[in-house]
Specification:
The complex is a heterodimer of chains A (112) and B (112).
Chain A: E1 4-7, E2 10-13, E3 19-25, E4 31-37, E5 43-51, E6 54-57, E7 64-66, E8 76-78, E9 87-94, E10 102-103, E11 107-111
Parallel strand pairs in A: 2-11
Antiparallel strand pairs in A: 1-3, 3-8, 4-5, 4-9, 5-6, 7-8, 9-10, 9-11
Chain B: E1 3-6, E2 10-14, E3 19-21, E4 23-26, E5 32-38, E6 44-50, E7 56-58, E8 64-68, E9 73-78, E10 87-94, E11 100-102, E12 106-111
Parallel strand pairs in B: 2-12
Antiparallel strand pairs in B: 1-4, 3-9, 5-6, 5-10, 7-8, 8-9, 10-11, 10-12
Chain lengths: 112, 112
């Protein structure tokens, strides 16, 4: 099993550009989520999904969109990048919220 | 609403001495609690989890944590630190909203 994979590992964007961060898991997990990690703030939930076709907002959803067309994939879209979105982004999956979350290796995004 | 407070942002110990990383949680009911570890430039890995079974939870790499409801604490301990334990540690709570709440993290330094 590859577990949770994320692409790209690094990305530099200019303000106003859009892009999609990819996330895939091969463990047949229903629950997937996106977090951003900023120094001294732990991880904050952006969006999550409890199954294909079902998504919901987390703590910091503004400026991001998600969709879940398959169990395996959960892409995160930045609509119009801003310097405040410079961060490390982690995707995670699990059987359910109370089970172990499996994290991807992260995407380091810089917006200039 | 639930919250997680990690009482120390940085902890330094000498190799071979005990480790104590402190975590307090706030929740209207008993949540599921986790400790995750993040090594530099890596994703998060589960160390251990508490889900209302035994209050003393043993995890990987010699770590353990004790759930104390009266003190709303879930401190992480290890009897003898190893150089490879140097990393950032996150205390995490899972509540009713299918969301995880992360503490702000504790950076553990192990001195030779």
């Amino acid at each position: 099993n590859a577990g949770v994979t994320q692409t790209p590992k690094f990305q530099v964007l200019k303000t106003g550009q859009s892009m999609t961060l990819q996330c895939a898991q091969d463990m047949n997990h229903e629950y997937m989520s996106w977090y951003r990690q900023d120094p001294g703030m732990g991880l904050r939930l952006i969006h999550y999904s409890v199954g294909a076709g079902i998504t919901d907002q987390g703590e910091v959803p503004n400026g991001y969109n998600v969709s879940r067309s398959t169990t395996e994939d959960f892409p995160l879209r930045l609509l119009s990048a801003a310097p405040s979105q410079t961060s490390v982004y982690f995707c995670a999956s699990s059987r359910d919220r109370s089970y172990e979350q499996y994290f991807g290796p992260g995407t380091r995004l810089t917006v200039t | 609403a639930q919250s997680v407070t990690q009482l120390d942002s940085h902890v330094s110990v000498s190799e071979g001495t005990p480790v104590l990383l402190r975590c307090n949680y706030s929740s209207s009911y008993s949540p599921s609690l986790f400790w995750y570890v993040q090594h530099p430039n890596k994703g998060l890995q589960l160390l251990l989890k508490y889900t209302s079974a035994a209050t003393l939870v043993k995890g990987i790499n010699g770590f353990e944590a004790e759930f104390k409801k009266s003190e709303t604490s879930f401190h992480l301990t290890k009897p003898s630190a190893h150089m490879s334990d140097a990393a950032e540690y996150f205390c995490v709570s899972s509540g009713s909203a299918r969301q995880l709440t992360f503490g702000s993290g504790t950076q553990l330094t192990v001195l030779p």
